[in-house]
Each structure stands twice: as structure tokens, then as C-alpha cells.
Amino acid sequence: MARSYPVCAAVFVATAVLGVLLGVAASPAKAITAEQFSQLTYVQVKGSGLANRCPTVESNGSEVPVTAGSRLTNVCFEPKSFAVEFETDKGKEFATTKLTTRQTYTLAFIEGSLDANPITFKEQDGMDFAATTVKLPDGEYVPFLFTVKELVAKGEGSSFKPGFTWGGEFSVPSYRTGGFLDPKGRGMTLGYDQAVALPAMQSDGQGGQDELFKETNKVFDLGKGVIEMEVNKVNQELGEIGGVFVSKQPSDTDMGAKAPRTVLLKGIFYGKVVKA
Ligand SMILES: *[C@@H]1O[C@H](CO)[C@@H](O)[C@H](O)[C@H]1NC(C)=O
């Protein structure tokens, strides 16, 4: 069974958030261009943390024009901060979190079609999801599948230039897949139908089973996320673009047992336009 959640972000104050992000996103010490990346050997990358970095763009020219039937390739999303929405007395707030996943959370080598006027990128392929876990100040762990699957991003015009903003919605598949078994051996397509250690709760008519219903009846939740991006560097000669992103997406639901939390990610992106 699959079910959908509505887009988590009704109002998205992208420009304000992007503006703040612009000041903190770059870390020049580790800046490495796509061309430099392509010259590294496996051993040079292994264990260095570089596989988790997006390439940077060296400015050249003022814009990268897009023509119909182009492709955007080698697209990379590297989050720099992870916040999780939680309830307070004053309403909803985003708590900054501590990342507990190692340097394996960047999305890379993504590609898709790119059309002009308005610029429209449709995500099709690549390493487009990364299981990630963050920890809230109160010690709660929040796992989520960081992704931009099936992203359709649009922006006005037909060329990328510094200040160009674009964005759109993407799909967020379940953090776990159908083959997952919980600690009591229950699963969606495999495993026990119910927790075998709780036989007394099966014979009580209704109440006990209601309590266990969500844990027992696993579902593959499909969520929706939304991303906003702003280009801040282009390389006309190489067709490269780079900039910052803010994305919002639901977290893991433990296969339907829990309500998803909203995760707010800010970071940098990279992409290379390849003409038809
Ligand atoms: C862009 O790069 C090319 C090749 O390196 C160079 O000839 C050209 O002058 C550069 N243009 C700008 C505006 O920097």
C-alpha cells in the first residue's frame, strides 16, 4: 500500500533563507572544481571525504544559455545544515540538529533533461537519495531519506546567471523498503503479520489490536518535498553552474507508524549544462 502526504511547505520564504545562506555556504579550503575531481584516482578520493563534496565553479563569463533539448549533468547537492521542525509553546520552530551520518549524505552524478523558457530541469537519473540521520537537542534521532527524486525545477528565462532563482517539487520515497523487518519480525511484504510475542492482545476483540495497528500494518509512504535554488556562479566556457539551495521534505515514518517530521536542509549545488 502506498499513500501520499501533501507538500510540507505551504509558504516558502526562499529568498530570505537563501540570502542568509549565501554568507556561510562556501568553504574555500576544500574548494575543488569538477575538472580537478576528474583527475583524482580512486585511492586519492577514498577516505578523504572528497566524495561527499560538490564541485565548485570558477567564474567565467556572465551567463550559461540553455537551448531546447539540453541536459543538466553531474548535478550535486551537498547539505551544509540540517534542521527539524518541532512544536513549542510558541508554535512551530526549526531546531538545529547534530548530524550522526558519516560523510555519505551528498547527492551526486544526477542528470536530467533541461529545456528553455522557462528553464525546466526534470530529474531522471543518478545517485539521487541518501539515507541520513540527525539528532535533535533532546536526543531524539530523526532518520530521513535525503532526495530530489523526480524533481521538476523551473525558473524564468533561458539562461543561468548569478541571481537566477528556480525550484520545484520532488518525491520522497519511504526511508525503508518493503523487505524491511522490524525488531519483532514484522514487515510489509515479508515477515510476520503480527508480533508473535503479544498473543494476549489478539484475543481481546478490538482495543489491543487498534493500539498495534500502525506498527503491524506497514505502509510504503510517499512524501513530497520542495526545493528552491539560487545560482551564484557560472562558468560560460564549461557550461557550469553553482549556487545554494534550501529544501524541505518529510522524514521517515517508520513505515507508517509515526507522523513524519519536516526536515529543512540548506546547502550548495552544482551542475553542468550539456547542449543538445
Ligand atoms: C573564460 O575562459 C577562457 C578560456 O580559459 C578565456 O579565454 C576567457 O577569457 C575567459 N572569459 C572570462 C570573461 O573570464
UniProtKB/TrEMBL annotation:
Subcellular localization: Membrane
Transmembrane region(s): none
Keywords, comma-separated and alphabetical: Membrane, Photosynthesis, Photosystem II, Signal, Thylakoid
Listed GO CC annotations: photosystem II
Matching Pfam families: MSP
GO biological process: photosystem II assembly; photosystem II stabilization
Signal peptide: 1-31
Family designation: Belongs to the PsbO family.
Protein name: Oxygen-evolving enhancer protein 1, chloroplastic
Source species taxonomy: Eukaryota, Sar, Alveolata, Dinophyceae, Suessiales
